[in-house]
Amino acid sequence: MSEAIKQYLEEKKGVATVMAARELNVPEREVVRALDEQSFEVGISKFGEIMDDISEWGGILMIVTNNSVICEVSGELPKGKFSHGMFNLHSDTSPIGGHLMADKFDSIHFVSRPFMGKESLSVQVYDIDGNAAFKIHVGRDEKHELKQDQVERFHALKKRMMQ
User: Fold this and answer.
1) Cys-Cys with 137: which of 39, 61, 102, 131 at CB 3.0–4.6 Å?
2) For residues 57 and 157, is the Cβ–Cβ distance under 8 A?
């Protein structure tokens, strides 16, 4: 199936991975894995460390999708903590918050891929069924360019996870 996914992505450059997955009737994680050099997979055991690092980046874009909604929230990722079987995010100042069922997560991917004609960097967390649990995108400035300090942090974190 990987070759069919790669062919599809080659024919439809820039297509959103969630849309490709729906059209190909495969879990989105399989589409992301087929991105080859545009995606680096990390084991879920690094989840807490990755989330802790991202909580220090400043304003990011968090995206959560399901079968009928794509929800985007911009703000600082609160420092989370594991409690009662979940990874809990609480903040008095950020619109990002909630309870993440981390025991349902399976893999993390660092994705560097153009989207809608612009460079895009994201950390994507997938569940045991291969669906995107959520995606955290490097923030953009007032000119809609990636925030350079976050670009550097993204690459440094990715490099650390590659070791």
Assistant:
1) 61
2) no
